[in-house]
Design goal:
Largest sheet: 9 strands, mixed
Number of helices: 18
Distance between the termini: 51 Å
Helix content: 25-40%
Radius of gyration: 26 Å
Number of strands: 20
Length: 650
């Protein structure tokens, strides 16, 4: 793989906010993809214990502050995964949105870690875009291609690389933002070079100190997310007092009787499926696509299965039937510079503490893993069984046995956080989403916060992983900006607000007669029958179902029980054309729906055909996926009866 070549263009130290007395010691040039930014690299040892192995370039981008007054400390940012590269993914979003108001007085420095992005990304074809075969073989092939450098991509080395960038730019102190696994960069750096940090923000941080090799915090976080999404939804809470119990029932049901059948995903593709408990735990419940669709539908899908209806569960399974360990789901792929599957493996297998001795032979590692597994109490991963949660690779997309065949790190390889290391007493903001169950649950974030003596943990309601890119980004970015501007969080009331609520499903009726009827919006203007109100509710819920699933399809898809729709996303709206879409077996909706993003309002004109020759024209209107979205109004006529109804928007 070729190293990055950069033209030599010297720039003044003042332009980079270099403190008095310091001098920039690197070469930069105008970035080809953003001429107003400056790009450069520093060459660092690939293996600090074996200089003969040469160097690796660490690429970085500098965005200068815009104000004319004195600048404050720069803000450094790396990206998580591991394997994602900030300069190939989100640096513009950080520049314009997350740090936008801070740019007047802060330079921004975006760094691609070794093995990722433009820092000589690892290209392991066996791991790059998902694994459908033998995980051990895929990991072994990647490690073999790296040879004796397989352990040179850990977070300890990343910390030294970041300090090399700092020193090359002549910067004394800086703020450091890191989300997800990039928070490990912060932890590794803080315990070695804490004197150079002014403040840190750890967004949805991965826990590395006291790392849980079996991820015990995962199952309770999954139950919590399912419970919270349902509790906050009017539709779901009306039918489920304890959605987490429904998930527990479903896990037990699939443990003894898997569901075997053909599931049709949201795009209309057929999948031959065997839905077992491990498929539920590691495929379905790890799927974060759409507006928390799995958490929103799983209780209703379980209740439907109790009644003998497999269709809702099979759709969830079909939507989750993607390659293991890839950067994205479905058929989407990524180039190694955007996401490096090899770096993802190399870094974690070097960093993580696992339930075996890394210097042991592979057969001994397996024995140690099995012994640790046998020692677990039966309910350790409730509601999932030990067999499901620790299903051996390649059945699980993540797990403590994935690194079984990865070479042992050599003794000289720097660990992420040295034993007994002290964390600096600097302002630290730790952010977490209360619906983050797949990556960094709040329980883990709380432990990370305890490491920093001056930390403040803020949990955001209705936020998932990486809060500044979540549905609650407006609140989380405001908190980050205030913290980096003042050194304190201040009033974090926005984080606790549940004015924004995800729509969830109370039931998946097979026929309109089993649906919860719409409520009267105006008694004086409504002349509907009970059947009219049930059919109207099904029509509105069918529209909501399409709105929920359209983000998974991009261009269009199918209804739960029939029909199809076309979707067109623009910068200003979502335009849907529906044809005979069915949520139940006996109600079809056809027409057009438009969601205006600026106002977050949906308006749909629908032709409806239902049971007992019930038919007519309906208009569904109201706020959608926005704070304060409480209900959708349904007006029009069915069989000549004038309607003035409402259904929950959540």
């Amino acid at each position: 793989m070729k190293a990055i070549r950069l033209s030599i263009v010297l720039i003044c130290a003042v332009c980079l906010n270099v403190p008095t007395g310091a001098a920039a010691n690197t070469a930069l040039r105008s970035c080809g993809d953003a001429p107003t930014a400056l790009c450069g690299m520093v060459a660092v040892p690939l293996d600090r214990a074996s200089p003969a192995l040469g160097t690796i370039p660490i690429f970085f981008r500098v965005v200068r502050h815009t104000g004319s007054g004195p600048a404050k400390e720069p803000i450094f940012t790396t990206e998580g995964g591991p394997g994602y590269a900030v300069n190939e993914n989100d640096w513009k979003q950080y520049r314009d949105v997350v740090f936008g108001p801070l740019r007047a007085r802060h330079d921004l420095v975006f760094i691609d870690q070794r093995g990722a992005g433009r820092s000589l990304p690892i290209d392991c074809p066996s791991l790059q875009n998902g694994i459908n075969g033998n995980v051990f073989a895929a990991y072994t092939a990647c490690a073999s291609s790296l040879g004796q450098t397989a352990d040179d991509y850990g977070s300890g080395d990343v910390a030294f690389d970041i300090d090399a960038v700092r020193a090359a730019l002549g910067i004394d102190r800086f703020d450091f933002y890191g989300g997800s696994y990039a928070a490990v960069d912060i932890q590794a750096y803080a315990t070695r070079f804490g004197q150079h940090l002014a403040a840190v923000v750890l967004d949805s941080p991965t826990k590395i100190v006291g790392f849980d090799d079996f991820f015990r915090s995962g199952p309770p976080a999954i139950v919590r997310a399912v419970t919270l999404v349902c509790q906050r939804s009017v539709s779901c809470s009306a039918d489920h007092r304890a959605a987490g119990h429904e998930l527990g029932w479903l896990a037990a049901r699939l443990r003894s009787h898997p569901v075997i059948g053909i599931g049709i995903d949201s795009t209309g593709k057929r999948h031959h499926l065997r839905v077992t408990e491990w498929f539920l735990a590691w495929r379905i419940m790890q799927n974060t696509g759409g507006p928390f669709l799995v958490d929103a539908e799983i209780a209703a899908a379980a209740r439907a299965l109790r009644a003998g209806d497999e269709v809702p569960l099979l759709r969830l399974a079909a939507d989750s039937d993607a390659p293991l360990i890839g950067p994205f789901t479905g058929n989407t792929t990524a180039a190694p510079n955007e996401f490096s599957g090899g770096d993802n493996a190399a870094r974690q297998c070097t960093d993580l503490t696992l339930p075996w001795q890394k210097d042991a032979p592979i057969p001994v590692r397996r024995q140690q893993f099995d012994a640790a597994r046998i020692a677990l109490a039966p309910g350790t991963f409730a509601p999932f069984s030990i067999d499901a949660w620790l299903a051996p690779a390649p059945r699980s997309p993540i797990g403590p046995d994935l690194c079984l065949t990865w070479p042992a790190p050599r003794p000289a390889v720097p660990v992420p956080v040295p034993a007994g290391a002290q964390f600096p007493s600097i302002p630290a903001l730790v952010l977490s989403g209360d619906l983050d169950s797949v990556n960094s649950p709040t329980a883990d974030a709380r432990d990370v916060a305890k490491l920093f003596p001056q930390s403040r943990l803020v949990e955001l309601a209705d936020s998932g992983h990486h809060t500044v890119f979540s549905w609650r980004a407006k609140c989380s970015t405001a908190l980050v900006q205030r913290f980096l501007r003042t050194g304190t969080v201040g009033n974090a009331a926005c984080a606790h607000s549940t004015a924004f609520v995800f729509p969830a499903v109370g039931r998946f009726p097979q026929i309109a007669a089993h649906a919860r009827p719409a409520t009267l919006a105006s008694r004086a203007s409504d002349h509907s029958t009970v059947l009219d109100r049930r059919v109207a509710a099904v029509a509105g819920d069918a529209l909501k179902d399409v709105l929920d699933h359209a983000p998974l399809t991009n261009s269009g898809g199918v209804g739960l029980r029939g029909g199809s729709y076309r979707a067109k996303f623009t910068n200003s709206n979502l335009d849907l054309r529906l044809h005979a879409v069915q949520l139940t077996n006996d109600v079809k909706i056809t027409g057009r729906a438009v969601v205006l993003f600026k106002t977050a309002v949906v308006t749909a004109k629908l032709t409806v055909r239902g049971p007992a020759d019930v038919a007519g024209q309906l208009t569904v209107h109201g706020p959608w996926l926005t704070a304060g979205a409480n209900q959708l109004t349904i007006t029009g006529t069915l069989n000549g009866h004038k309607l003035a109804l409402a259904i929950p928007a959540t």
